[in-house]
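In the laboratory, one determines a bound structure by crystallizing the protein with its ligand and collecting diffraction data. In a computational setting the workflow is compressed into a single prediction: the sequence and the ligand go in, and a structural description comes out. We illustrate the idea with adenosine monophosphate.
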Amino acid sequence: MKVLVVGSGGREHALCWKLAASPLCDKLYCAPGNAGIAAVAECVAIAADDIEELVRFAREAGIGFVVVGPEAPLVGGLVDRLESIGIKAFGPSAAAAALEGSKGFMKDLCARHNIPTAGYGRFSDAGAARAYVVLKGAPIVVKADGLAAGKGVTVAQTVEEALAAIDEILVSGRFGTAGAELVIEEFMAGEEASFFALVDGETALPLVAAQDHKAVFDGDKGPNTGGMGAYSPAPVVTPELTAQVMERIIRPTVRAMTAEGRPFKGVLFAGLMITTTEGGAEARLLEYNTRFGDPECQVLMKRLKSDLLPLLLASAEGRLAGMTTEWSDDVALCVVMAAEGYPGEPKKGGEIKGLAEAGAAGGVTVFHAATKDGGGGKILANGGRVLGVTALGGSVRAAQERAYTAVDRLDWAGGFCRRDIGWRAVAREA
Ligand code: AMP
Ligand code: GLY
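The predicted complex, in structure-token form:
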């Protein structure tokens, strides 16, 4: 079977790395891919959100299965378009991707179906939004309704901060149409985890959980990013909590989406806030994403022992019932190397040396997130998050040591990383 992966990040490199190893995959393409992905797939120069060109390429190249990495083409209807011409695809329809594409839709769905999440209001009028914030007080969370590349959320510690966020989104129009509406919600305290389940419209198959580090600097300081590192398993997501999340959050969502005429298939990524009290741990939903997390995908793929392709195909074809997955008991940990300036304007073009040496470290795979071939064997940084150095180890500490051993073999003047990825889990282990 000919497979096309859509996207160009570390998540897509990890997906390509697994799919290329599948005996069912005869030929692997990636659009647009990057310099690391080029080692396992043929890269095709089509942007991930160019739906017309992707559909044309898939038809002309005789692609049998398309795996969509990022959210934009999902919300843009790529899966609908492919299926309408008989090409199978992994990921939700545009109608089902609204779980990620509209925070207001997601909150209303949770409210209608009693799915545990923070209390909220939806606003398109700045005056009404301000009045709500003043009424509720701080801390409080202000979110642009639509896709804002991870930058649309303000966790406001004061009423003033929340009012400023409202003005920035509704009045100044920082996010364009994605910010034409707001969700304002109750602040939830606790520990965050990323939970993943494959869904085929009816059956939900839990994968494993991970935790990421959103803040750019050590000690979880500085502005938020797409994720500076991740590890799996997430110690806070016990088997009991997994059962609870499936029972109270994932399965009710899958049923609700089908009942409302938007059957969900693909991967459901629940961002959870977990609070532990004397009565036990309880998970509430922070957000849904309708794709794999990045860098969570890198640690999931490193731990997944099963062939990925039949699982993704089963999701697309409604055959998940009875399927199982097998995982390494080891811990996988990913350290993201970013270019100076990230999450603001990253410096592009710096040469990265030592990739082979880093990749040769025990248990390590270096996934590329934003690199390009500079010719003559040179690999150049080409974005904000540039590499995902991912290691397996018998403990969080062991995986962490291996990952940083590999990081230290890299020679890239313009790159940086956090040195404390996994700190919370390491502290738990100790
Ligand atoms: P989201 O994109 O909705 O996941 O929000 C991004 C980040 O903002 C989350 O990972 C949390 O750290 C934080 N956040 C979002 N909503 C809340 C909330 N209701 N309470 C506390 N923190 C939140
Ligand atoms: N790492 C969080 C995300 O992919 O949304």
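The longest helix spans residues 239-259. Keep in mind that any predicted model is a hypothesis to be tested, not a measurement.
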